[in-house]
Write a structure and sequence with these properties.
It contains seven helices and no strands. By secondary structure, the chain is an all-alpha fold. The chain has a single domain, classed as Up-down Bundle (Ferritin), CATH 1.20.1260.10. InterPro entries: Ferritin-like (IPR012347).
Amino acid sequence: MIFVLGVIVSLSSSISIFAESKEKKQEYMDSHKEIIKSLKECEKVCDIHTEDITVDFLNQFIYANKIKIGLSENLIKYGDSKEVRNEAKKCIRNSLENISNAEPILDCIKNNLTKDKLKEEKYLKEYLEIYNEMIEEMENDCKEDIVDRVFLKNIICHGKFTVKMLDNIEKYNEDKGIVKLYKDSKKNQIKEIKKMEKLLDELE
């Protein structure tokens, strides 16, 4: 009788843990979908049609880092792996640093635009192609069952997009402040991607 009661208690506990885990995943995904929705609305909420590609890029760069902060905060709240949560905290610190480096440059040039509509059209065409590819891949990665894996796959995808975005502006820009910004950011981003890929392999 005691054995049977023990089994019942154990089963009840397992069911409860499973239910909590499922609820936690759902809450994470609900927040995650809102972040993906924000990504899709980049053109509406982010000024990327100023006709000055440097200003376009800085607005895109700041917005991308804010999205990354949102992804990381969501993981910290719902993720299971302490190591992944720690990396998410590093992502937030790096993104805040990127924003603090980009905003002063933007403030200096946004009221003195160097307009070139044709150049901007070419730049934005390439930018939006890689941006839409990123969103599609991130949505596909949401099919994963484990919160930590969803985050890692999404943050790797977002990181690779950021590298492509930085490569894209490099073709069109010669401003020394921007050159330093994208070179430093690209170097840090590549390191971060490698670390996240290692963590993802460990979760296999």
